[in-house]
Amino acid sequence: MRASFKYRLYPTKPQSQFLEGELREACSLYNAAKQERDDAWKTCHKSINYYDQANQLKAMRADGCLTLANFSCCQDVLRRVDKTYKAFYARVKRGDKPGFPRYRSARRYDSITFPSYGDGCRLLDTGKLRVQGAGHIKVKLHRPVEGEIKTVTIKRQAGRWFVCFSVERDTSPLPVSDRATGIDVGLNSFAVLADGTEIQNPRHYRKAEARFRCSQRKVARRKNKRSNRRRKAVRLLQRAHAHVGNQRRDFQHKESRKLVNRYGLIAVEDLNVKGLAGGMLAKSVHDAGWAAFLNMISYKAEDAGRDYRKVDARGTSQECLCGARVPKTLADRWHFCPACGLSASRDHVSAQLILKRAWIGPSSANVEVVVSCVA
Ligand SMILES: [Zn+2]
After folding, report:
1. Distance 181 CA to ligand 1 centre (A)
2. In this predicted model, which residue has the larger pLDDT, 41 or 279?
3. How many CB atoms lie within 10 A of CB 233?
C-alpha cells in the first residue's frame, strides 16, 4: 500500500534561497500553463491537454525561459495544471458549482514534486538529501523510511522546509481480533465507543484562539502589505495555526492507532461533514476533524487487515437497540426506552446501533441482535 513519510529539512541559507527560487519558477510555469489553456480556448475554442504542453518544455528550457533545475519537476507542474482542469470539467459535468481554475500566488505555491525517485532528488547513505541544483541538504530522519520510495516532494510550511517521501510498502497485518466496536462521533466528547468508553475532545483550536487573535491583530496592524514586519507577523500567525494542526494530527494518530490495535471490526457512520460544517457548530466540527480521523482509522485498518465498515447512520440518535423509536432533540443527552427499559447515554446507544447496523445492515428494526460482546 502507499504511505507517506515526512521529515524536517534544514537547508543552509543559500540552499533555502535556491528552493524558494525553484518554487517561484514552478509557480510561474503553472500560471503560464493555465494562461495558455485559457487563451487557446478563448481565441480558437481549442482545448489543450497535458501532452500538448509537455511537448513544449524542451524548447522552453533550451530558450532559457524555464530555469527549474529538474525536467521531471516541470512535467509534474503541468500534470498539476492538468489535474485541476480535469477536476473542473468533472464538476461541470456533474452539475456542481464549477469553480474555474485560478492563477496561483507565488507566496502560496509551496511544493515541488520529483515524480520519480532518483531523478533530481535522492536520499543519501550519509542521511542527507541530494537535490539537483541545491546540493546535499540536511534531513532530520527521526524515523527510518519504510518501503520503496516512489516520489519525493519538497514543501515549505510556515517558513520551514519539509520533505515527503511517498513509498510503496507491504501491509503489516496484526494478529486477528474478534472484538468489534462502533464509533459515534459527537460534540460533547470526541467519540464514544460501543462499550461506552469516551474519548475526550481536546479542543486544541478553542484553546489556542487567544493566541490566534493576538497574532491576527499583529498582522492587521501592519498596514504595508509588502513590509518585512508584516511578513514576520504573518509567519507568526502561520506558525500558530501549524502548531494546532500538529497537535490535532498527533492526537488523531494516537487515538486511531489504539482503536485499530484493539478491535477486529470497526464500524463508523458515513458522515456528511460538509453538511455539518456549514452550520452553527462549524468551528467545533472542523476543530474535531472527524473526517481526517475516520480516514486515519480507515487506512490503518486496511494496513492491519482489520474490517472497517461505514454504515448509514440516519436515525441512530432516534432509535433504540430493540428497534423502538425514541425521539430526542439535540439537547437530550440521555436515552431512555419505554419499550425495553434501556437507559444509557445518547452517544453510547448510537455507537451500539452503528455496530449493529454494520453487522446486519440498515433495515434492522425487528432483528434480534446479540449485544453481549458489545456491552
Ligand atoms: Zn428499547
Report:
1. 20
2. 41
3. 19
